[in-house]
Design brief:
Elements: E1 14-16, H1 19-29, H2 34-37, H3 39-43, H4 54-69, H5 71-76, E2 78-83, E3 92-105, E4 108-118, E5 124-135
Antiparallel strand pairs: 1-3, 2-5, 3-4, 4-5
Amino acid sequence: MPNWIPGMNLEPIIKTITQNQINKYADASGDFNPLHINQPFARKSQFGRTIAHGMLIAASLSEMMGVNFGIDWHISGRMKLRFKAPVFPGDTATTFGEVKEVIDLNSRSEIVCVIGVKRQTGENAITGEARVMVNTNQ
C-alpha cells in the first residue's frame, strides 16, 4: 500500500469515446435522450453533434480511483462532481487526480483527492473531489 502524501498524482485512465460506447451506455442505463443517440437531432442542438452521457465519462473517474485505491475505494469511496463541458464521440478523455489532503484517524486515513477528466483539447469535462478511507495498519 502506498504511503499517500499530498501532491501525489494518481495513475490516470485514458479512453477514446465512440458512438458505439454511447449507444451501449444508453441501452444499459435506459437514458435514450436524443442528444446522445440521434445524430440528426443532435446536429440541431447547441453542440452540433451527439455527446456522451455525463455518467459514462464519470465512470472513468471511479475506475481511476479503483485502480489507485483498490478495494478501499469500492468499500468507502465517494465523489462530488461538476460537469463542465461535453465529451464528443472521437474525443480522448483522460482522468487526472492528485492527493490534496490526508486526514489521520487512528488506524485509518481519509484520503482527499482533486479529480477530473480532460478532453484532448485540455478542456476540463468534469472536475471534483473524491474521498476514500484507507487502512493504515500494517
